[in-house]
């Protein structure tokens, strides 16, 4: 449903962020995008919804060539691609319900949204979504009264009320504790399955990516250096993506003495990356 072909991005500063990206994402597939800082993960997902302009190449969402769109046509295409952010991007002074409904801004007219008069169907759907993400009792709370995990659930509900076909997810767990991170990843995974949504999830935590994604794509210096199933990620592949490291042993040697590590459950996946492996 999403096809990137020969996508390149060079920023005006001269930084080459993406080189000849080729990627096809089928409907319903959850893909994790991993790679070191500066590898181009955020640039890639922002090229898809054109928050960043690719320098060259083609990006197709089903029949639509996204790189050629502007104005209303671009706004319409963006409705199909909802974004979930690391820092949630909620409006703090608004209620949870209002934040969720703001996901409909691309659909309702300016005055309606300005006056916050949303159609009854949208309100009913917002109720259903808040229930689905586990926040049925929080709808009247202000967004700034919520925990990080709850804020991300609101961000997920806001994305879904857009009725997207594709989720673009930018480090959804970066500000969350390990347990909440897993709950959020599980929720995203389940919702994608329920709604046949494809997702690209930019994530630093390799263990979480392995556990919750169907497919992992590794970027290094703007190029795809790995594209495979979570079980195919081995120490050699991690070295290709991140550079030299003793992937199998580092967590044990460096973290085992701490209380946090000894309380952690045994890894469910074969490899745990030291930088993001605590669960
Ligand atoms: N607005 C910008 N202007 C100039 N260069 C940029 C800009 N945004 C990103 N870059 C550069 O593009 C490259 C890729 O950055 P990007 O943020 O996409 O990487 P990333 O993999 O998402 O990193 P991180 O994991 O740290 O968020 C880096 O060299 C970065 O310095």
UniProtKB/TrEMBL annotation:
Disordered as annotated region, ranges: 249-279
Biased composition (Low complexity): 257-279
Primary location group: membrane
Topological category with respect to the lipid bilayer: Peripheral membrane protein
Stretches assigned to the ABC transporter domain: 2-246
PROSITE patterns membership: ABC_TRANSPORTER_1 (PS00211), ABC_TRANSPORTER_2 (PS50893)
CDD domains: ABC_PhnC_transporter
Keywords, ordered alphabetically: ATP-binding, Cell membrane, Membrane, Nucleotide-binding, Translocase, Transport
InterPro entries (UniProt xref): AAA+_ATPase, ABC_transporter-like_ATP-bd, ABC_transporter-like_CS, ABC_transpr_PhnC, MetN_ABC_transporter-like, P-loop_NTPase
Compartments it resides in: Cell inner membrane
GO molecular-function term, one example from the UniProt record: ATP binding
NCBIfam families recorded: ABC_phnC
Protein name: Phosphonate ABC transporter ATP-binding protein
């Amino acid at each position: 449903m999403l096809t990137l072909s020969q996508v390149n991005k060079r920023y005006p500063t001269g930084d080459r962020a993406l080189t000849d990206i080729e990627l096809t994402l089928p409907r319903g597939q959850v893909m994790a995008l991993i790679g070191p800082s500066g590898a181009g993960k955020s640039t890639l997902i922002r090229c898809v919804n054109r928050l960043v302009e690719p320098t060259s190449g083609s990006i197709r969402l089903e029949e639509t060539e996204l790189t050629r769109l502007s104005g209303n046509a671009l706004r319409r295409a963006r409705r199909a691609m909802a974004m979930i952010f690391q820092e949630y991007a909620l409006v703090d002074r608004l209620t949870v319900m209002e934040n969720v409904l703001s996901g409909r801004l691309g659909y309702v007219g300016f005055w309606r949204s300005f006056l916050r008069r949303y159609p009854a169907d949208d309100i009913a759907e917002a109720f259903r979504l808040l229930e689905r993400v586990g926040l049925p009792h929080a709808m009247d709370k202000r967004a700034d009264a919520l925990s990080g995990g709850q804020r991300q659930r609101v961000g997920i509900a806001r994305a879904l009320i857009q009725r997207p076909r594709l989720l673009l997810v930018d480090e959804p767990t970066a500000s969350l504790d390990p347990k909440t991170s897993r709950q959020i990843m599980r929720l995203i995974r389940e919702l994608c399955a329920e709604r046949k949504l494809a997702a690209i999830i930019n994530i630093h935590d390799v263990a979480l990516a392995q556990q919750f994604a169907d497919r992992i794509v590794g970027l290094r210096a703007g190029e795809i250096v790995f594209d495979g199933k979570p079980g195919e990620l081995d120490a050699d592949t991690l070295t290709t993506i991140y550079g030299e490291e003793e992937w199998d042993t580092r967590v044990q040697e460096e973290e085992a003495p701490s209380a946090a590590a000894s309380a952690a459950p045994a890894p469910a996946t074969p490899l745990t990356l030291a930088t993001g492996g605590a669960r």
